[in-house]
Amino acid sequence: MILASHVVFGAYGFWLPNDPRGSWSDFVGAWELFRFGPATKTDTRRSVADRPHDRELRRAAKQALKRPAVRFTGLQAVAIGQGFAECIRRGAVTVWACSILPEHVHLVIARHTCPVEQIVPLLKGEATRRLVAEGLHPFADPDNPRKRPPKCWARGEWKVFLDSAEDVARAVRYVEENPVKEGKRPQRWSFVTPFDAALV
Length: 200
Fold this sequence. Notes:
The protein is of the alpha+beta class. It has 5 helices and 4 strands, in the order E-H-H-H-E-E-H-E-H. The protein has helices at residues 31-34, 55-63, 74-91, 116-133, 165-181; strands spanning 4-10, 95-100, 104-110, 158-162. It starts with a strand and ends in a 19-residue tail after the last helix. 33% of the residues are buried.
């Protein structure tokens, strides 16, 4: 039985559908990116981040985006966390780990009555609302603050289903260690429930 999901989703421009390391996309939906090649669909559920690849090609593709790739600041990460907290409270979702990094987010989400594929867009939506409310949306137009900004999140998510307490504990450790690997402090979010293997 599935106990939880390890979910990763990116900011706009973080992981392109034709990334030379592979992606989870079936198609490239933007002409400015398509000239760098078709989608690099992979079925692996392991991270491909460390695969050798053409870094220049990846950089060139990112520079061809309509807008600059998003890198969230610390203040923006706090606003995103506040948005997540509201979504998690309203949906009675249990989150066992969360790391909000400059270009992507990791969460371990306990099994819920809603599929995780429905929970992720709700999390993104609440985070976006909070960024807009705080005047921190990366694509906000300062000359027209009422104008709806373009999306700051990449489409979709990557997920691994976890079917044992050991898998969940391993994913929780991985998510908790992610900021430290990037030279940042560990993150503590009020909406995260400590994982207790005895309760699953």
